[in-house]
Amino acid sequence: MGLAPEGEFYYDKVIKPEEEEDDDESDSSEESDSEELMMHGKGNGKREIRMIEHYSSSHRILLVGEGDFSFSLSLAKAFSSARNIVSTSLDAHKDLEKKYNKGTWNVRELEEMGGLVLCGVDATKMSQHFFLSTQRFDRIIYNFPHVEYIERRCLRISKGREEDQETKRMITKSKLNKQLVKGFLTNAKVLLRKEEGEIHVTHKEGDPYNRWDLVKKAEKIGLALHESVPFCKHKYPGYDNKRGCGSHPDDPFPLGDCTTFKFRLAP
Ligand SMILES: C[S@@+](CC[C@H](N)C(=O)[O-])C[C@H]1O[C@@H](n2cnc3c(N)ncnc32)[C@H](O)[C@@H]1O
Known about the structure:
Residues 1-43 are annotated as: Disordered. Pfam families: BMT5-like (PF10354). This protein is 24% helix and 21% strand. By secondary structure, it is of the alpha/beta class. It has a single domain (37-265), classed as Rossmann fold, CATH 3.40.50. Helix 1 links the parallel strand 4 and strand 5. Helix 1 packs parallel to helix 3 and helix 4 (162-191) runs parallel beside helix 5. It is globular and about 65 Å long. The two termini are 34 Å apart. The model is unreliable at 1-35 (pLDDT under 50). The structure holds S-adenosylmethionine. The site of S-adenosylmethionine (SAM) has 21 residues, from loops.
């Protein structure tokens, strides 16, 4: 993937200008009635724009906190390209194979489709990342933020009854998750394109997720809720939500009702 002088990605292989500007569009064999494929004129040429849910092949998309990279790959397949995608995980590259059955395979496929995969990226520090700091994105996505497995000794509460200790552990976990989403939002804001850029966070409904106060936190950081919509896994073919930590990182976790919160820069 080449870098433009301003530090942005080239879309040379995504944008396919047509030979003739004034041809009859109805003759185009590539044109489709599908809502998901549109032909957009730009300058002297046209390009196909493919959509999946809230995401478009014309967006520069940054994915954060990926598990086995199946969400990124689902987008890439819908776009028939991953050239507009930068996909990141906290995991080191060498751990992907250990943690996930399809991790390295999905990464390879993403890279073959032109995507950029970066491992070892901490969402709470990513605005300082040597490469990401030079980029701006239209969509920054973190699905199901959750801190890594916290070793029991970190959460050991030495005094009190077992139930009290468990409650204290839950409170500590919740605090760490709040810090994670706050750190993510703060960093994502820096990397967000000003015009109509959106940060998307998806989490489960109910306790303890609703206690994260995501919207309030975002507002304090200078982000405004644009909309919140139900998240439906089946709309992303191939996506497998992963625990990502503990003794079974490759296992899915039950989803139930989930919401995607879309934030924009506050006016
Ligand atoms: C519940 S899993 C969800 C994984 C994936 N997004 C999915 O939908 O399958 C939570 C993920 O957050 C990641 N994570 C935890 N702390 C992080 C951090 N500081 N920066 C980036 N990712 C983090 C974990 O590595 C894990 O993959």
